[in-house]
Structure formats: structure tokens, C-alpha cells
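Q: Can someone sanity-check these two? First one:
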Amino acid sequence: MFDHWDYLRAALQNNYAFREMSVVQETPLLVQTERGIKKIRFWDDERLLSEHLNWRRKLISDSFFLDRMYATVYGATSIRFDRYMITCHDAPLDQAPIAGKETQWAGLVALLLKKSRGNLPPVAASQVSAQAAYFFSESERVGMVSDTIGQLVRTCYPSVQSRAEIADRLRNQHRSGSKAFILPEDFSFQSTRLLLETLFFELGQSRPVSGYRQLAQFILLAALEQGEEAVQKLLEALAPQFSLERETQDLLLAEWYEPGEWFRLFAAANAPIAAPEEHDLFKKVWDAKTRLIRHVQSVWNMAEMA
């Protein structure tokens, strides 16, 4: 792409009236302009681009910024360059912490849950418990390794199976119904930034998928990295949004009940090279999920499931 940088720069300057431009980063392409840093996206699927334009229009809010497509001087939302369509977006750099911004984060999550909705292909029945049973039975058949990790895999299996069954049940009772909560496949809450002390989120440029896994991972990582006090305040701020939304509650909880950390531990136990750090990581993630589940059930007035 940068073999044609002079042509690309000319196209961007002509269409967006930038007087100054220099490359800050090549992948993704960030350029410094007199109006701040801009992200340049390249689209080779015009239908997906059109879907994202409409998606962003649905999510426009007075309370948040999002990576809307800059309009060109001709009023277009994209320009053609070679075989690509190109869009231009703001790209603030300041990280957005949860602590002190819990109410804003809760508002952003509520906005996405309400307005980021769409149709997804039918999903097969969740079979996490069957997968866990198969993995464990195979390990028994061939002989589970006897080191510390292998022993932990074996000891935890009853609890793992219990959690897997709950995850399956929660998911399978919501396999059909209203439009799904969707996010782009490349969406990351961790890419959210601060712009003028307001949350700025990126909708990315990939196809839509169910958004519950990304939301659950965001809350889990926040608990692990930013402290559970901030996450508890976030969940409490979210509580009014979820008071009547059982599907959201169930599908979010299913992500935490799914014992993905046990499957990773299982892989480590059977790997040719030992990975002792997996032992501590498993316990850290398992315990964090346990606390999140209990806290969510408490603040959202849900019945105990396990």
C-alpha cells in the first residue's frame, strides 16, 4: 500500500481538505493532520461498508462519540482508491479507564444492548458439557499426566461439568426470538478511548457476531486488570438496565459459566512442554468468574444457579 503513498495522500488531501499529513502508524494506518490523528480504513467489501454506515447511524448518541465516517468535501462518506473504498475516522489516543467513569461505561453498554441489534444465522444447540465430558473421558482413556496441572484438571472436572451444563441451559433457552445483540467480530471494548472526557468507541469494520462474548470478556478483564471495586460499581450502574432483560442476563452469565479456562488448562496438561503458569492463571480466572457470577446475581436480583 505504501508504494502508492503519494497518490493516497493526494486523494485524502483532495477529499478531506487536509493541509498537513504524515504517517504515524502503518497498520492500522494512522495519519497526523492539522485536525488531529485520523484512522484510515480500507474496505474491499462495499456491502459491508454500507452495513457499517447504517450501523453507525443507529448508534449516534449525544452521550458518546463513535468512529463515524468523515464526510468528504463533496459530501460522500467514502472515496475510491484502487480496488478499495476508503473511510476516514477520528482516532483519539487517551485510554478510557473504568474507575471514575462507571456511569458512562454503563450508559455505553446499555446503548449497545438496546440499539446494536440485528439478525444472525441460526445457532446450533450449546454443547459445552458434552465437549467437557469428551475431553475428560479421552484423558482418562489415554492416561492423564500426573503433574500438578493434570491433577488440577482431574480435581476440577465435577465443578467444570456443572458450570458447562448451566452455560448450555442458559444459552439453549434463548436460541430463537427477537433480534440478537450484535457487535463487529473485531470489536473490542478495550479500544474505547477518551475524547473531551467522553467515551469514544470504535465500531471497526468486520461482520456482525453475537456481542455477549465480547461484553463478558470486557467485564472479566476489567476485574482482573483494573480491580473488582470498579467493576462492581459498573455492574451496579448497569443493574437498572437489566432489571427486566432476562435474555441479556442469561447470555452474559453463560459466558462466565462456560469453563474456557479449564479447556486451556487441559491443553496445557497434555502439551509436550510444561506451562506451569497455566496453573495460576486458571485459578485466577476461575475465581474471578465465580465472584462476578455471585455479584451479578446479587445486584441484579437473580436466583442462585450453582
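And here is the second, same format, sequence then C-alpha cells:
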Amino acid sequence: MNLNLFNPFQETQRYEKQQRKEFLEAANRRKYGKYNGYWKWDLACTWFRVTNDDFFRMYGFNFVPKGKLYEEAREFAWDD
């Protein structure tokens, strides 16, 4: 019995989850503003995904998210 049938309900749920995530990401960019011309939200999410050395190679400066930005970006970055 093949249980790998296309389920439009699952696809709709997946699409809606992706849309919510994109909306949250855009809202957080505006919420936290910019640092050295980059959105702090993007810097923080990248900071959780790469090593400190790689981050410095990519951007040319060190950055450590603090406070609520740290908490929200960690949850967002690790929720993939």
C-alpha cells in the first residue's frame, strides 16, 4: 500500500507555515533595524548558523546579538 500520495491539505499547511515565517522575518527586520548597513535580524540569524570566523569573513566585523534579538533569532534559526 503506497502512503506517499499527494495530500493537498498538507501542502496548504506547509505553504501557510512558510508564509507566516516570511512575514515574521520581515517584521523582525523592521523591528530591530540595521547595523553597519545590514539588518540586525539577518546578522543574528546568520550568527547562529555559522562559526564566528566565517561570520567575520563574510561581513568583516564581529557581531553578537543581545537580549530579545538573541532569543528570537535563535528560535527562528533553529526552527528550520
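A (reply): Looked at the second one. The radius of gyration is 17 Å. The helical segments are 8-32, 40-49, 52-59, 67-77.
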